[in-house]
Amino acid sequence: MKSGQEVRMDILKDLKVKLADEFDRNFTRKAFFDKVWQPRRNDRRGSLLLVSGKLRRSLKAHVSQDGVHFTSAMPYAVAHNEGFEGNVSIRTHTRKAHKAKRRVHGRMRRVDVRGHSVSSYTRKLVIPQRRFVGDHPEIDKMVEKIALKHFQRWGEELVKELQKHTHLEL
């Protein structure tokens, strides 16, 4: 028969799988359960938070004695999940050479733009909160359902064990 600690770890392992699946689904629904993400300011390639899929794939769940913890290797994960507003320093960098359309003598022409250095500067950055991991009433329902299932199973095992060791003599 399982100990209380083993049942607890089983519950956490089941929660890890269920929550990882639900948090992954948040990227598909473009919402944190029922709270829809704010749309982009300008339309670019890819879906919201899914241009390359690195952020979605970087979410990892870990079970510990404290509970289930989610981490991401992407440095911008917290900024998107919590939202960010502040100044960001842009380092000195070099822009690559490319072709661009420019107006030359009144007509649009494709011209070569040479690579050039850009000196460091500071810019204001505003990233709206688009939560994909966190606490939500739906999670409480999942925890309750999984825990109840495990406790019922554990209770049934306990009753069977007690019935084996209980002898009634008349």
What's the number of helices?
A: 4
Q: Specify Rg, calculated over alpha carbons.
A: 27 Å
| Helix-strand category | alpha+beta
Give the helix level as a range of percent.
25-40%
| Helix/strand order | HEEHEEHEEEEEEH
Instruction: Tell me how many strands there are.
Output: 10
Shape: elongated
Oligomerization state:
single chain
How many domains? The number is 2
Task: List low-confidence stretches.
Answer: none
Strand order, largest beta sheet: 1-2
Cα(first) to Cα(last) distance is 29 Å
* Largest sheet data: 2 strands, antiparallel
Percentage of β-strand residues: 25-35%
The mean pLDDT is 86
For this entry, give a set of tags.
170 residues; alpha+beta; 2 domains; two-stranded antiparallel sheet; 10 strands
What does this molecule look like?
- With 170 residues, this protein is α+β, with helices and mostly antiparallel strands.
- A hairpin with a 4-residue loop joins β3 and β4 (68-71).
- The protein folds into 2 domains: 4-83 and 128-165, no CATH class; 85-126, no CATH class.
- The protein is 39% helix and 27% strand.
- α1 (4-29) runs antiparallel to α4.
- The strands form 5 sheets. The protein has a two-stranded antiparallel ribbon.
- The protein has helices at residues 4-29, 54-58, 77-82, 137-165; strands spanning 31-32, 35-36, 60-63, 68-71, 84-90, 93-95, 98-104, 107-113, 116-118, 121-127.
- This is Phage virion morphogenesis-like family protein.
